[in-house]
Amino acid sequence: AAGVIQSPRHLIKEKRETATLKCYPIPRHDTVYWYQQGPGQDPQFLISFYEKMQSDKGSIPDRFSAQQFSDYHSELNMSSLELGDSALYFCASSLGAPGTGLYEQYFGPGTRLTVT
Amino acid sequence: GEDVEQSLFLSVREGDSSVINCTYTDSSSTYLYWYKQEPGAGLQLLTYIFSNMDMKQDQRLTVLLNKKDKHLSLRIADTQTGDSAIYFCAAKTDKLIFGTGTRLQVFP
Question: Which residue from A42, A105, A106 is facing B101, i.e. has the nearest CB?
Answer without folding.
Answer: A42
